[in-house]
Amino acid sequence: MIDNPFVVSTQYLRENLDNPQLVVIDCRFALSDPELGKQQYQTNHIPGAHYLDLNEDLSGSLQQHGGRHPLPDPNELAAKLAAIGVNFKETLVVAYDDSRLAFGARLWWLLRYLGHDQVALLDGGWRAWQAAGYPVTDALPTSNLGTFVPQLRQEWVVDIDVVKTRKDLPDVVLIDSREVDRYLGKREPIDPIAGHIPGAINYPWQDVTDTQSYVHPLAKQQQRWADVQQQTELIVYCGSGVTACVNLFSLELAGIHTGKLYAGSWSDWCSYQ
Questions:
Q1: Range of the domain at 234
Q2: Which active-site residues does the annotation give?
Q3: Do 50 and 162 fall into the same domain?
Q4: Cross-sheet strand order for the sheet of 7-8
Q5: How high is the pLDDT of residue 1?
Q6: Tens of pLDDT along 114-140?
Q7: In a shared domain, residues 112 and 163
Q8: Which one, of 112, 94, 102, lies nearest residue 245 by Cα?
Q9: The domain that contains 13 carries what CATH number?
Q10: Residue finishing a domain among 116, 131, 146
Q11: Is 60 helix (H, G, I), strand (E, B) or coil?
Q12: How many structural domains does the chain have?
């Protein structure tokens, strides 16, 4: 278990489920079956957990450009967070999924982008909770209305024009978070064009955790980024700005605070090709 405010253990969560200053959010999702996560949540989930859907809640509406998962409207997301009892800069939000942080990290990053740092990911995710034998339920939670007025950290996001302008500067590193085959253009299961943005180097997002969704130790996170930690700016992308957040989470764990999200990512970049 990493000693870090952005990661909590299943034991910690079990002991704090009744804490009124804590809100649990289920982020399970499957890109290949967009209804699956919601169905899984309705079948059973951690007691008291609310559900936020990648497409409906954690992304905005699709346009010609901007990628497959544009950032959501911040005020709309803030209203949804308030509705499930999140108070800005007060409530600890614990997010979980069953996909090695792929979707929980999107919510983790979005909350911090909105100015709310009180957010952590559940180490080991849903499977670890089940493996521990902790209770599950299909009951839908109730909550008191919170107050959430976002204070956007707009400098954390870049668009295609910024990427084009800055990616080849000597103190800037462009990081592709997809698995190696997609980075190399050998395989592209989702987007119409294979390959990567010229100049990008590859740090696959799956390397942040082990196969059981447990976050690798702090020393390993730091070692992973040793070659780029001195750079002034790290621009991180993936297919659509979702799993890039896992790398941004890893950077934060490693004590590197220079990461920015190219929100449209490869799906935006190749829409101009």
A1: 154-272
A2: 238
A3: no
A4: 7-8, 119-122, 92-96, 22-26, 50-51
A5: 47
A6: 999 999 999 999 999 999 999 999 999
A7: no
A8: 102
A9: 3.40.250.10
A10: 131
A11: coil
A12: 2
Opening angle at CA 25, ends 22 and 26, nearest 5: 150
Residue 260 lies in a domain: yes
What single-letter amino acid sits at 132?
Answer: A
Residue 150 to residue 79: CA distance in whole angstroms: 10
Task: Give the Å distances, CA to CA, from 88 to 58, 85, 101, 128.
Answer: 17, 10, 23, 28
Spatial neighbors of 251 by CB under 8 A, at least 6 apart, are 225, 234, 236, 257, 258, 259
Within-domain flag for 183: yes
Same domain assignment for residues 12 and 127: yes
CA-based torsion, 52, 59, 40, 93: positive or negative: negative
- The DSSP output letter for 47 is T
Chain segment 46-71, per-residue pLDDT in tens: 999 999 999 999 999 999 999 999 99
The total number of residues shown for the chain amounts to 273
If asked whether residues 124 and 23 sit together in one domain, one would say yes
Tell me the pLDDT tens digit for each residue of 166-220.
999 999 999 999 999 999 999 999 999 999 999 999 999 999 999 999 999 999 9
Among 131, 164, 186, which residue terminates a domain? 131
Residue 121 counted as domain residue = yes
Give the residue from 62, 269, 273 showing the smallest Cα distance to 159.
Answer: 269
Q: And the tokens for 133? A: 């034998």
Positive or negative CA dihedral for 157, 160, 271, 63? positive
Q: How is residue 77 written in tokens?
A: 């997301």
